[in-house]
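Worked example 4.2. Below are the chains of a multi-component assembly; read each line carefully before continuing.
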Amino acid sequence: MFKKTIKAIFSAILATPIALMALADDQVTITVWSMDGHDLGNEDTHRQVIAAFEAAHPNIKIDLTLLPESGLEDRMNTAIGAGGKLPDVFPLISGEWAPIALDLSSYIEADPDLSQDMYAEPFWRTRATFGEKVVALPTGIGANVVLYNKDVFDKAGVEYPTADWTTEDFIKKAVAITDKANGVWGGDRPRDAYRAIWHNYDAQVYSDDSTTVEGYHNSPQSLAAYQWYWDLVHSDATPTKAEIDVLGTEGTGPVDLFIAGRLGMATLNQSHMLRALKEGINFGMVPEPAGPSKDRHANAWSATPAIAGNSEHPQEAYEFLSFWAGMEGQYISMTTGLNMFPSIPALWKDHPYIDHPAIQTFKTTLDWPLVRDFDGTHLCWRAALRRVDEVYELIGLKAIERNEIKKALDKEVVVLQTALDDCVSRLGS
Amino acid sequence: MKTETLASSRTQEIMDLHKARVGRRNRRALPKNILIYAFMTGLAFLFMLPIFWMASTSLKLPREVFAFPMEWLPSNPQWGNYEEAFSKFPLWRFMWNSTYMVVLSTIGQLISVPLIAYGFARFEFPGKNILFMLMLATLMVPTHIKFIPLYWMFQQLGLIGTYWPIILPEFFGHPFFIFLMTQYMRSIPKELDEAARLDGAGSFTILYLVILPLCKPVLAVIVVFSFLWNWNEFMAPLIFLDDFEEYPISVGLAFFQGRYSVEWHLFMAATLVSILPVLVLYFFAQRHLIGGLSAIGLKG
Amino acid sequence: MQFMGRKSKRERTQAIEGYVALSPWMFGFLFFYAIPILASLYLSFTQWTLVGSAKWIGFENYIRMFTRDPVFIDAATATGFFVLYSLPFKLILGLMLALLLNMKLPGMNYFRTIFFLPAVISGVAVSLMWIWFLQPDTGVVNTLLRYVGISGPGWFWDINWALPSVAMMSIWKVGGAAIIYLAGLQNIPAHLYEAAAIDGASKWQQFWRITLPLLTPVLLFQLIIEMIDAFKIFTEAFVITQGGPLNRTYFFLYYFYEEAFRNFNMGYASALAIFLLIVIMSATALVKWWSNRWVYYEN
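Applying the procedure described above to all three chains together yields the following structure tokens:
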């Protein structure tokens, strides 16, 4: 009897914390790293998405770490390198992280509310998939388009560009609207080689199987693209690199120069477009100009949050991820803060700026093939390009003659091949 | 010894003569002083030009920032930019966090540095010179190589997301401060220690009651420099903190550099405000710095 | 015998107390320096992409570094020239500034604050400010130069000017060096100058015969500290130039950072870091050895 009582008391004492722990266990905390910026939204947007999610899922608590845009990659790489626990959910902004991301295929299959068909096809293909795996879900999307300042064109008496314009038109118009005395430049210059215009020349830096550079980087197509760039630089209708750098740290683009009325045409993105709208700039919008290629390419991307492969609560993390990147989350991100553009076409009709003609132009480019940099299939694309900026830079600095470009590209092939081989041996093709 | 007395008596003699002349010379030196002041002011103007530019930008309209040719001053100073910068991000909160972080770091240095320097300055033990060299050599290590191992260690300790990973290293002494303090302690006559020891004081009593009170100038240097360095520290808080509300100002400022645009006028406004605490501290502390820093030139 | 024993006991207490006093540092050294350095040393013999585990490849990284990496040569050249450009200026101008600030005139405190200010403020914003400041077309410096009829260079955007521009930025921070010189100057006993003045030595002679010799220990300290700092230059490349144009400002630590955190090449990056560390240590040892010829200590 006595023994029993003691036992009962003991088990009661023991049971209390265990019960409490179980109760606490019901409440799962999911850590999320994200960044403040237009593809994912600002702080307010994040808070609203999380509040809506927590209201719908009382057993899941979201612990958000909002990092400055410039810091997410460093922090994530440090955490990956340290090899321990990673945040449950994080934006997969680097293709190299794909191997550590959870394969979402089975989760998506089991999810009645979410399917691949909901999403715009190109964005599903880009960073969201890696080989056979689905590693992330697309949220906000972005693309480069050319904004032109109607006032600048009117003043020079030049016709506005049209959607079917070519790279040659770009230079001609740029020259015609340039007004040096007032510091007005015609059009900006590509901020890297092998962006959309290079693709529109069918130029490719190396073979599809990531083995050969010879015959790609120095192909007639590449040469033609580089020569176009040379012509643009020497037309003196484009701001110097110094101007562009001042007005755009990485990713910013010359939006400020455009808004200040000092740049007639600027290759910008959806977020800049909204800013120009809000500032009341009289502007129009066309896709990036066509080249000799039969296809036109878009420099487009999406923000793709993923789940860490070593997450302790993958199911709950998926609940949040599918909410964030699903209908409800994207609707909130679209209608608050920075008015993100959703990767779910069905939501577009509710976008606050949908009636503006510029948004319609923006939409047409989204179905085009994407440039390689964002296509996620080539891990070494970026590492290799980092090593082949010499010809591009020489042209930008006006330090090379037009007829020397071929020779310089030939020379660069060797350097690039070494860099590519080294990268492929580490990261794979 | 003999020459010294001779010299000093001779000095005394001529010093009096000298003093008599100085009065006359001071009056004549006036134009020369004006020249010096003019030169210094010109130089100061050059040095302040970048700051002036920041201040001017912080008061401009976004359009004026990009005007061509450049505009020296805003046509209509936008004091509202400061208000806007502060409403955009919780800058006061960030500055408070920085202050908290910096004060704790400084306390860490103040606790550890005297003790370590005491060990180097007053004790003989095998390997001391090698350890001292090693201590100085740590100045050469690039900080970037530390983050991954440190992240791993602090993750094992469960301290990611707290201030500990940033503050804890400060409790083990910065080599610059240790060097300075060691030099300074060596210049304090050992007879003081001996006397205290004869009175029965232990080694560590001597440190805290006899030696440390004489090291105030170095402590001032530690306070100011530790404040400066930690106020500007960016990478460690970025990597180790989790909560937006806990970020220091250095990380907070980075939020002004958005993914697609930088609002330069607000960015400059916020930056200028973030400099103020450091500036005020330096202005009031600078008189005390000189004494502490003078230990650098003493023979090691 | 007994005497010897007592002495060694005192020695032992000395040693124990010494180690106790040093223990915080030794602890910190172990965790914040020794382990990271040993980890880097190990990683420098591996191939590691951060994701997954490190693969031992022996000396491969070092062989690549010295035989087939053109960027390594660019990085070493840029860093070497930066040290050569910035160091003498910083040391000499720092001293000149300190001599000015050492004058006993009213209001010097304000000047000291002003000149020290650039050394106080740092970080990304200040580096970004320099982009604006030196912008060739709309920047402050070239606008000023235009007023006097000089067409200024392209600064960060000119192949030949990029590196000197970065060096110029670091000279702006010369106030940090000046304050340490200032401390050294104020340490020089006034009676030496008085005696020299009586002997009819001019200000110029006083500087060469008294000030400079007595300042050599401070000079050595500055030389070493500033040299280490110059070798570790990073932020300027990171924020302003991204290593360009044509890798002219592709500083060593920036190369390390790009390889480690952007190219997922931690093994190679570690080899670069170890190499840099060895270079800094050798350079410091060399300076220390050379200094025996010119550093003068009082007493």
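Take a moment to check your reading of the output against the notes. The two ends of chain B are 25 Å apart (CA to CA). The CA atoms of residues 62 and 68 of chain B lie 13 Å apart.
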